Amino acid sequence: MDDINLNILAITEDSNVTVGGKYVPNSELAITAAKELLRVSEILKLYENEEAADD
């Protein structure tokens, strides 16, 4: 979650982000954040389904 928060913060503040000395455009950060959020959402849904099955 920290990586997601940092990516979103960088996008909203129009910061320059580099990885290994290479500039990463905000569009790439947005795509990465969206993919990570989707994965978190999928994990939470699986967790909710397991809890519902236990009840």
Topology record:
Layout lengths: L1 H11 L4 E3 L2 E3 L1 H29 L1
Antiparallel strand pairs: 1-2
Helix pairs in contact: 1-2
Overall outline: elongated
Spatially, the strands of the biggest sheet line up as: 1-2
Bin the helical content. over 70%
Strand content: 5-15%
- SSE string, helices as H and strands as E: HEEH
Name the poorly predicted regions. none
> How many structural domains can be distinguished in the coordinates?
1
Question: On the 0-100 scale, what is the average pLDDT?
Answer: 92
Largest sheet: 2 strands, antiparallel
Radius of gyration (Å): 15 Å
Helix/sheet category: mainly alpha
Distance between the termini: 28 Å
Overall description:
There is one protein chain. By secondary structure, the protein is mainly alpha-helical. The protein has one domain. It contains two helices and two strands. Strands 1-2 form a two-stranded antiparallel sheet. Helix 1 packs antiparallel against helix 2. It is elongated and about 50 Å long. The two termini are 28 Å apart. The model has no long low-confidence stretch (mean pLDDT 92).
